[in-house]
Amino acid sequence: MRSVIIVVLIAAAGFLYTNLQQADRDVAGSIISEGNIDAFAMQVGDCFNDDPEQDATDAIFGVAGIPCSEPHDNEVYAVFDTSLTEFPGNEQMGEVATDECVARFETFVGRDYMSSQLDVLPMYPTRESWDELDDREIVCALYDLDLVKLEGSMRQSGL
């Protein structure tokens, strides 16, 4: 009986820790306090900071969400499912995601991609997430080419 209570307490502590660390959103869905955002819960307008310990080739399970009113590294500007019916390979998936993100860039920023001070950061399914999680989602984020922190939303900023 004692071991069951310990297991339940450990599970409850893990649940509370995870939920207390999640970013809070207001009724409109905007982040109002920093915390984790699950990769499958990212929304257009979410701002987040880079994880200095994460390698660019690592799978992303979540990001460090932050209100856009605070200096931040990235902002999500598009979220959509790919129309591909078969996984094309990691390199090709990256190319498709980049092309799709560039195509959606000007609508959000208000300036064409080639003349912008901003660059795209596509996040896309891996072979594993495609097969095991039925992941088809592409998330497009933007960041400053000079790696300067962004302030406020880049929506229609013309940068």
Word description of this protein:
- The protein is of the alpha+beta class and 159 residues long.
- It has one domain.
- It is built from three helices and eight strands; from the N terminus they run H-E-E-E-E-E-E-H-E-H-E.
- The protein has helices spanning 2-20, 90-109, 127-133; strands at residues 24-25, 31-33, 35-38, 47-49, 62-66, 74-81, 118-123, 137-144.
- A six-stranded antiparallel β-sheet has the order 3-5-4-6-8-7, covered by helices on one side. A two-stranded antiparallel ribbon has the order 1-2.
- Strand 1 (24-25) and strand 2 form a beta hairpin.
- 23% of the residues are buried.
- The model is unreliable at 1-20 (pLDDT under 50).
Question: What is the fold's blueprint, element by element?
Answer:
Blueprint lengths: L1 H19 L3 E2 L5 E3 L1 E4 L8 E3 L12 E5 L7 E8 L8 H20 L8 E6 L3 H7 L3 E8 L15
Antiparallel strand pairs: 1-2, 3-5, 4-5, 4-6, 6-8, 7-8
State the main characteristics:
29% helix; disordered N terminus; 25% strand; 8 strands; alpha+beta; six-stranded antiparallel sheet; 3 helices; two-stranded antiparallel sheet; 159 residues
Question: Could you provide a short overview of the structure?
Answer:
The chain has 159 residues and is of the alpha+beta class. Helix content is 29%, strand content 25%.
Count of helical segments? 3
Distance between the termini: 62 Å
Order of helices and strands: HEEEEEEHEHE
Name the helicity range. 25-40%
Strand percentage: 15-25%
Order of strands, main sheet, comes to 3-5-4-6-8-7
Are there runs of 5+ residues with pLDDT below 50, and where? 1-20
**Average pLDDT level:** 86
The shape is globular
Mind describing the biggest β-sheet?
Answer: 6 strands, antiparallel
In total, the number of domains comes to 1
